Structures are given as structure tokens and as C-alpha cells.
Predict the structure.
Amino acid sequence: MQLLIVVDKLLTGFDAPSATYLYVDKNMQDHGLFQAICRVNRLDGEDKDYGYIIDYRDLFKKLEKAVSDYTSEVFAGFEQEDVLGLLKDRFVEGKKDLDEALETVRALCEPVQPPKGSAEYIRFFCGDTENPYSLKENEVKRVQLYKTVSHLLRAYTDIANDMKQAGYNDDQKQAIAREVEHYEKVRTEIKLASGDYIDLKKYETAMRALMDRYISASESEKLTAFDDKSLVELMAEKGVDAVSGLPDSVKQSEEAVAETIENNVRKLITDEMPTNPRYYQRMSELLDELVKKRKQADLEYRKYLEKIVVLSKQVRNPSESESYPNGIDMRGKQALYDNLGKDQVKAESVHDAIMDARSDDWRGHPLKERKIKLAIQKILPEIADQELKSLFEIIKNQNEY
């Protein structure tokens, strides 16, 4: 439900934390008015700090009087602290919120090494590309960055048009605008460099619109040319030219470009590992070797880009690097082939057994899963329990099954 038109009911004794806007166009007073505005004062997740009330009847003068007289019989049932905190100065609260949001983001980014360029930010929030676990190990820091910058953008947007009334002078206003823009760009770069870009795509349109509206008077600038595709997908399709879609601040540093690509390839390898452990373990080793050569300056930059493009294609599509036998033409069969000693007969037999034994919604259903395991054991009677367990996990991660 997106819109609710209320005549008499649902103004009191009704709780919906997701309600954010209340449009008032009827006369109310005292307890009824107090209760009505409380419909939007419930917090609902981290994206809702408070509700908004659009008052078409100029009722807030009545409300101020009622709140100031909280000891009256009307508010006898309410705690004094609750009533006193009902109305607050928007500019005072907005300035406090913005200042705190800025301090939080500054503190989070303080450990970034000078000169605090794209490469330094990427290394701090993504880690060393030679470490296959660094992306996961630094995930908490990245999530914290995304949340704190999102909160900063919301806090800035709330008073961006009223900075002077909130108590900022012109110099402070311009400095804050530059700082907010800087952290928004940092967030975008880190999302790209870590491969988190697509996962948080839903925030991009809104955030970009806020930046265009409140920070820059120039025409809208497209931050990336990625649309709904990941960097690895673009590299597989466009080759080295995909690098041109990165933000200018990243492209200025060859090291930042390289680490952005490596982190994206690493993330895809990690995500796909459960579907075909043998294959993606080999891809991980190839990436490790390529990163090592880059850091030791054994590869010229252009040559490095060409090799990482080839690896991107192999990671995205195993058929790019493997010459699978005729008949091993699906991802599921390829995973079975790679993890059953490259035995085509076994791979095709297990595939057929799975297709015959599977039922609708078999994942997570003990009896249905057992039926598939028994079918596999008939084809592979010598398989050990642990090997069967590992093979079954691979099968569960295949979309075609």
C-alpha cells in the first residue's frame, strides 16, 4: 500500500512504521491532533530518521499550544519527556545531524594513507589484491562507508537549500558542498573497485539526482557507463575499452584501475566458487600470478590489461578457456566434468540421474534431496560420504538443476 486516504478511522490506535508522509486537510485539536501526527513518528529502518507532516489547515499553532500545556488534562496520560520532545527546530536539528554525519565519515576515512587518492582509498576499503580474502575481510568497512555516506547525503539534502538559516556562512556552505561531493565520489569508486556496484544499484539514481540538484549547477554528469552490467561483463564484451567507463578519478591512476579490475575479478571468482570449485580455484591461481607480475613490473600496463581481459572472459564463461568434449555443453555438466576427474561418461551419467530424480522445490527438502543422493550413488557406488557431500553442494548451486 502506497497511499491511504483517511476520513475518520486509522488516525488513532493505528501503527504503521513505514508511513513517512502525513497530509492533513481536516480540523483536529488536542488529543486527536496529537495522536494523528504520531502516525509518522515511528522509525522504520536506517533510512527513516523522522516523518513529514504537510499541514493544509495550519493546525500546528494549536499543536504548539497543546504541547506547551502538557500538564493539562489532555496530556495527563503522557510522559513529560515525550511531549517536550515532540516539536523541534528543523534547522537546529538539521545542522546537528549534518555536522555529526560529516564527523562520522571523516573519522572513517581518516586512516586512509596520504595523498588520499583513488588508489589509497581502494587499498584501504578493499585490501591487498594479492590476498584472495581481502575483499571479504574489508567488507564491514565498505558497508560502513556506504551507510555513513548515504546518511550524510540525506542529512545534507534536508537543509541544502537552507544552509544560511541553519547557521552556516558562505565559506562553510561551499566547503561542505565540496566535501559531500568528494565522499559521494569515493563511495562510487569503492563500489566499482570492490564489485559491490550492482548490488547497491538501487541507490544510484536517487543519489545522483541529489548531487545534481544540490551540489552542481552544471548539466548531469554520467558517473559511469556501466548501466546494469558489471565491470567483468563489460571487459568480457568490450575488452580493454571497458576501462574508459571508469570514473575519471580512477582512470588517472594505473594502479587504481588495476586494483579495481582485480577486485572485481576476485569477487566474481569468490561468488562462483561454489558452482565449480576446481575450475575457479585454477582461475584464482591465475589471478594471483597476474597480480604478482603486475606488482613486480614484469608486465607493461597495456599487456597487463590484455591479459586481465582474457582472464575476465575465462572467469565469466568457462567455455572461453576450456575445450569441453561434445555433450558437455551446460554449466552443470561442465561443473560435474571438472569435479569428477574430467570423466565425460561419469559427468553425463550423473547429470541424467539428477534430471530423472529431482522434484520441484527439492533444495532444502530432506526426502527429495535424499532421492537425488541415492541416484548419484547408483552411478558412483565407490564415492565416499564426504565426496558425495561436496559433489551435492556443487549440484545445489547449479541453476539448471
